């Protein structure tokens, strides 16, 4: 387990506190539709941090060719139909490029700024000129409107319990997922980024915002900077 990260609940827990069984249960929302609307049909997609394939499988069903990357063998065991690669995102070097690089799950908010820089550098080095990088950001009140909870139509409750400062602009965030038959928790480090800070980080990696894909600014289409 990485320092500052923790997870509890049934089944395997990854080094960043994610519970494999939990993520296998979480439903797919509109994320695959957002991706599909922003990229060419049939594009080659490099999905960084694929987990159990919640995004991978809907993208494959839409005709995309997906290479799915995750550091957890237990997560990758759940992925079907895609080429899979095990390893940390921030040091990935496949010596090939893709039409689309996907960095979802708020990974751009990694508590370690060096890890974030590595991830964005990997995005830039693996996207073709003329391609794009799709990034999911935290909402503006992610760290401030707490505690809060949401009852999912699927019959479980998601609680964002707290976000406590631990220094250097990083918060320790605690989340709980309560199902009728099980409860999982995750504690992780996250760095809030204003829009300006986010765009500066992109620029340092040789990327720029092409457009924000959602009204709340949580999904972004970035392209290689000129």
Describe, in plain words, how this protein is organized in 3D.
The protein is an alpha/beta fold. The protein is 21% helix and 35% strand. Helix 3 links the parallel strand 2 (44-48) and strand 3. The chain is globular.
Quick rundown:
The chain is α/β, with parallel strands linked by helices. It has helices spanning 20-25, 31-38, 56-61, 73-76, 113-125, 195-204; strands at residues 6-8, 44-48, 65-70, 83-86, 98-103, 127-136, 148-151, 157-167, 170-179, 182-190, 207-212, 219-224.
Question: Main traits of this protein?
Answer:
single chain; 226 residues; alpha/beta; seven-stranded mixed β-sheet; five-stranded antiparallel β-sheet; globular
Distance between the termini: 39 Å
H/E element sequence: EHHEHEHEEHEEEEEHEE
Question: How large is the radius of gyration?
Answer: 17 Å
Kindly report the spatial arrangement of strands forming the biggest sheet: 4-3-2-5-6-12-11
Beta-strand content bin: 35-45%
Helix/strand/pairing class, anyone? alpha/beta
Portion in helices: 10-25%
Counting DSSP E segments of at least 2 residues, the number of strands comes to 12
User: What's the tally of helices?
Assistant: 6
Please state the average pLDDT score: 97
Low-confidence stretches: none
Largest sheet: 7 strands, mixed
The general outline is globular
Can you lay out the helices and strands and say which pair or pack?
Layout: E1 6-8, H1 20-25, H2 31-38, E2 44-48, H3 56-61, E3 65-70, H4 73-76, E4 83-86, E5 98-103, H5 113-125, E6 127-136, E7 148-151, E8 157-167, E9 170-179, E10 182-190, H6 195-204, E11 207-212, E12 219-224
Parallel strand pairs: 2-3, 2-5, 3-4, 5-6
Antiparallel strand pairs: 1-10, 6-12, 7-8, 8-9, 9-10, 11-12
